[in-house]
TrEMBL record, chain A:
Record organism: Catellatospora bangladeshensis
Domain Gcp-like: 29-319
Coiled-coil stretches noted in the UniProt entry, renumbered to this chain: none
Gene responsible for this protein: tsaD
Catalytic activity: L-threonylcarbamoyladenylate + adenosine(37) in tRNA = N(6)-L-threonylcarbamoyladenosine(37) in tRNA + AMP + H(+)
GO molecular function: iron ion binding; tRNA N(6)-L-threonylcarbamoyladenine synthase activity
CDD domains, alphabetized: ASKHA_NBD_TsaD_bac
This protein's UniProt keywords: Acyltransferase, Cytoplasm, Iron, Metal-binding, Transferase, tRNA processing
Entry annotated with the keyword Acyltransferase: yes
Binding-site residues, Fe cation: H116, H120, D313
Protein name: tRNA N6-adenosine threonylcarbamoyltransferase
Automatic annotation (TrEMBL), chain B:
Domain of life: Bacteria
InterPro entries with a match to the protein in the record: ATPase_NBD (IPR043129), Gcp-like_dom (IPR000905), T6A_TsaB (IPR022496)
Species per Swiss-Prot/TrEMBL record: Catellatospora bangladeshensis
Any one cellular-component term (Gene Ontology): cytosol
UniProt xrefs under Gene3D superfamilies: 3.30.420.40
Span of the signal peptide: none
Stored NCBIfam families: T6A_YeaZ
This protein's name: tRNA (Adenosine(37)-N6)-threonylcarbamoyltransferase complex dimerization subunit type 1 TsaB
GO biological process, one term: tRNA threonylcarbamoyladenosine modification
Length: 368, 225
């Protein structure tokens, strides 16, 4: 008999281009199987939703088999199924949700339709154990840039700020493209930046001017930075001078990391919180981790960053949040819960129609 | 043999439970809510409901029969993904049936089956006394119409045929959505023989919308260049 505080949970992630299936027991990771359609999107310079959805449908069952084999468990052993219900690409989410519902039906298990962003926070427990609450979470990827306050992960999180235009990872992708680097842009920029001078070019830090801090203290803006890099590179090209790719990469990366860490530390200090969790694909950036650790140390703030494979989208994070919800005694979602591309952060798990859905789904009307 | 029947290739989100016998079949329970945007919400509760109504446990199922389209992609995938995960857990075979074939099965003479493909197009195929004469295709109704005479088509069924009746110029029958009885009837022989499980590959018939990015747009204004 499984102890209630160490539930065995299978998690499914399909909100973007990664098909992930993870299995955890409490805070212990047993399996983390992943299939990615990233190569199919590369020539388009970004994730093509329909291509991602088709890939999820093909990949999910084989990925489920791999995860179950890796963990050495069967679905009969599992205490609950968790699946990303949102936010994310609507069509992609629906594949994972349908697959999870099929599993829950066939294996007669409870199902939790969970919030992808809360799962990015929960995954850290697999690496560093229970999360001290309250905590500040900085979630940065190609799809999101959010600053959150986490008082009780089982009940939802409080958004403090988010990007008002591009996601941080999106800025990496666009600048990488400008510099002739492959998609996704994070790793090649990180690599080039190691040989460059971060002080070579002064790029703008969005929403950091005193007037911006009044209304957008914890919000981000990366669109102006991306344009500034494009203008700088173009001016160089026009003048016939070579573009110092490594310096541009390093200066751009520093501008992004400067704003992200400055605002995250500011959030910790103003809220009197001494734990900062960083997650999402951009959390794998070496400069972001180093800068956050350095700045946090000054104020006695502990920075928790899971290893890169857990930062990018995966099934383990969904399973980790599911296990947290089961252990906390949260009720499962009803079978009719929607995939919600705009699922709000205040909702840690979907409820289902019979209990009323507090948020209007982007996919369907709520009453019928 | 108890068979779960699913189809999500049209706005009718269909789930049914059938008993397949040596020479026929019977539908024990069925649900078909019509909502082209809620397949993901409706299908699983409907499966639960048909099993519950018949007092059948998922582990009692012998096979799953699923309509593989063609149909709007998002809804279609809900049915096929659900069927795939159900059969994976239960260790039972999955059998695919072309959704248009299910609509065509009960037609007589030369008939057009047309469902709504959105974007002012239809998924269509032609049937001769219920058997497919053409493979499924997707086209504008105005491009389908001139071809009907060449097949000697005299009637049409399906929601697409109703919606574009004026352009197709055919009398349209009542059947708008696939009947779960027809789906199970088409797959019944495979169920009885215990044929190998089939990959449930959706009939997309269209490529994904995706454009490769064009050359970089200038970031400097004309006066700055
Ligand atoms: Zn993510």
């Amino acid at each position: 008999m499984t102890l209630k505080d160490e539930p065995l949970v299978l998690g499914i992630e399909s909100s973007c281009d990664e098909t992930g299936v993870g299995i955890v027991r409490g805070h212990t990771l047993l399996a983390d199987a992943l299939a990615s359609s990233v190569d199919e999107h590369a020539r388009f310079g970004g994730v093509v939703p329909e291509v991602a959805s088709r890939a999820h449908l093909q990949a999910l069952v084989p990925t489920l088999h791999r995860a179950l084999d890796e963990a050495g468990v069967t679905l009969a052993d599992i205490d609950a199924i968790a699946v990303t219900a949102g936010p994310g690409l609507a069509g992609a989410l629906l594949v994972g949700v349908a697959g999870a519902k099929g599993l829950a039906l066939a294996a007669e298990k409870p199902i939790y339709g969970v919030n992808h962003l809360a799962a990015h926070v929960a995954v850290d427990t697999l690496e560093h154990g229970p999360l001290p609450e309250p905590a500040i979470a900085l979630l940065v990827s190609g799809g999101h840039s959010s600053l959150l306050r986490v008082d009780d992960l089982a009940r939802g999180v409080t958004p403090l700020g988010a990007t008002i235009d591009d996601a941080a990872g999106e800025a990496f992708d666009k600048v990488a493209r400008l510099l002739g680097m492959p998609f996704p842009g994070g790793p090649p920029i990180d690599k080039a930046a190691r040989n460059g001078d971060p002080l070579a070019i002064t790029f703008p830090r969005g929403l950091t001017a005193p007037k911006d801090l009044v209304e957008h203290r914890f919000d981000f803006s990366f669109s102006g930075l991306k344009t500034a890099v494009a203008r700088w590179v173009e001016a160089r090209e026009r003048s016939g001078e070579p573009v110092p790719v490594d310096d541009v990469a390093a200066s751009f990366q520093d501008a992004v990391c400067d704003v992200l860490t400055m605002k995250a530390i500011d959030a910790c200090r103003t809220q009197g919180i001494d734990t900062l969790v960083i997650g999402g694909g951009v959390a794998a950036n070496s400069r972001l981790k180093a800068m956050a650790a350095e700045r946090a140390a000054k104020y006695g703030i502990t920075v928790r960053v899971p290893r890169p494979k857990l930062c990018t989208d995966n099934g383990a994070m969904v399973a980790a949040l599911g296990a947290h919800l089961v252990a906390a005694g949260n009720a499962p979602s009803k079978l009719d819960f929607p995939a919600d591309s705009a699922m709000p952060l205040t909702l840690v798990a979907a409820v289902g129609e019979s209990l009323g859905q507090p948020h209007e789904s982007g996919l369907a009307g709520t009453s019928r | 043999m108890l068979v779960l029947v699913l189809d999500t290739a049209t706005p009718a989100v269909t789930a049914a439970l059938a008993e397949v016998g040596p020479s026929g079949y019977a539908l024990l329970a069925q649900r078909a809510a019509v909502d082209g945007r809620a397949h993901g919400e409706l299908l699983a509760p409907q499966i639960d409901a048909v099993l519950g109504e018949a007092g059948v446990k998922p582990r009692d199922l012998a096979a799953v029969v699923a309509g593989v389209g063609p149909g709007p992609f998002t809804g279609l995938r809900v049915g096929l993904m659900t069927a795939a995960s159900l059969t994976m857990v239960l260790g039972i075979p999955a059998y695919g049936v072309c959704t248009l074939d299910a609509l065509g099965l009960r037609t007589t003479g030369r008939a057009l089956v047309a469902t709504d493909a959105r974007r002012r197009e239809v998924y269509w195929a032609v049937y001769a006394d219920g058997s497919p004469l053409t493979g499924p295709a997707v086209d504008k109704p105005a491009d389908v119409a001139p071809r009907l005479a060449e097949f000697g088509v005299t009637t049409a069924v399906g929601e697409g045929a109703q919606k574009y009746a004026d352009q197709l110029g055919l009398p349209v029958g009542d059947a708008r959505f696939p009947d779960p009885g027809a789906l199970v009837e088409i797959a019944a022989q495979r169920v009885r023989e215990g044929a190998p499980s089939e990959p449930l590959t959706p009939l997309y018939l269209r490529r994904p919308d995706a454009v490769e990015p064009s050359a970089r747009k200038p970031a400097l204004s004309a006066s700055e260049r």
